Structures are given as C-alpha cells and as structure tokens.
Amino acid sequence: MKHATAQSLDRLEALLTAIRALATLKEKSRGVFYLRSRAALHFHEDPAGLFADLRLVGDWQRLPVNSFAEQAVLMRELAKLPMD
C-alpha cells in the first residue's frame, strides 16, 4: 500500500480541511499530520480505496476514508486526541 498521491488527496480535500481545523494536529506536509513531535495521521491508497493511518496511542490503526460515513468515523477518532 503506497502513500496517497496528490490526486488522491484532492479527493479528500474536504476531510483535510476539517482535520486542519483541529487545534491538536499540525500538518507537516500535505496529508501528513503530527501530534506534538510525533506522526499521528497520514493517508494511503490501494485498489481497495483510500485509507487513513491513525496513531492515537501506541500502534497505527488503519481506517477507510472513501465515503462520508467512513470519514465521520475518522473524525470521531480524532476527537479522542488529547488537547494539550
């Protein structure tokens, strides 16, 4: 599974805009977000679609982000991130 291309990230622009609005994450490069000094979120693509790799605590969790419903699941997970 490869990292999402610019074209794939274009399809997620509304989601990326919502993530950028969160005070807890900082975008280091397009589609790659950090929590403090640690990578916390990035995107992948494969024939099955687009996926977000999210690290809340410990290991990475892979979530599909192809539909608005799947993107809402990701946003709910991001709401669990510590605010400090």
List keywords for this structure.
3 helices, 30% helix, globular, 84 residues, six-stranded antiparallel beta sheet, alpha+beta
Describe the structure.
The protein has helices spanning 6-11, 13-20, 68-78; strands spanning 2-3, 26-29, 32-35, 38-46, 49-54, 61-64. It has 84 residues and is α+β, with helices and mostly antiparallel strands. The protein has one domain. Strands 1, 2, 3, 4, 5 and 6 form a six-stranded antiparallel sheet that branches. A hairpin with a 6-residue loop joins strand 5 (49-54) and strand 6.
Count every helix, treating DSSP H or I runs of 4 or more residues as helices.
Answer: 3
Total DSSP E strands: 6
Q: What would you call the quaternary organization?
A: single chain
Radius of gyration: 12 Å
The total tally of domains equals 1
- Biggest sheet layout: 6 strands, antiparallel
The residue ranges in which pLDDT falls below 50 over 5 or more consecutive positions are none
Order of helices and strands: EHHEEEEEH
Could you tell me the strand content as a percent range?
25-35%
Span from first to last CA? 32 Å
What is the element layout, followed by pairings?
Elements: E1 2-3, H1 6-11, H2 13-20, E2 26-29, E3 32-35, E4 38-46, E5 49-54, E6 61-64, H3 68-78
Antiparallel strand pairs: 1-4, 2-3, 3-4, 4-5, 5-6
Give a concise summary.
The chain has helices at 6-11, 13-20, 68-78; strands at 2-3, 26-29, 32-35, 38-46, 49-54, 61-64.
